[in-house]
Amino acid sequence: MTRLCTIRAAKRGDEALLLELIRELAVYERLENEVVADESLLGKALFGPEPIAHALIAKYGGEAAGFALYFFNFSTFLGRPGLYLEDLFVREPLRGHGIGKALLLHLAGLAHQRGCGRMEWCVLDWNQPAIDFYRSLGAVPMDEWTVFRLDRGALESLAGPKR
Fold it and tell me: What global pTM score does this model have?
């Protein structure tokens, strides 16, 4: 990690910064219309009584440079927890300084400390720079797996009427 880069756990009060970074990520991924998160939702998810996710903030030369948002899952086959990296983003002007790598190494260390059997994430098919970067770290694509999703409307429909 470069000396100018620092990484810290996000804390209450970082909601506005995280939302700003999330919106920048959405623009980069061409998904800006999909962001419905707000500071309140982030605060509850990350800093509420039962946090369901965690975030890291990277700074470069004292400036907010990027973030990673992650949570822990469980592998029935391994009998161990896993770390799932939901999002990793470095602001465009600060790319190429090792910030993304520093975030990933930090997360790998955290996963190792927690006894995780693996660390996983998704990457958009068109994002070749990210794919090349992940491969350079030893990550391998899961070619025989397809991600499925039920969105909020489908969940509501399947859950049936409220009781």
Answer: 0.91
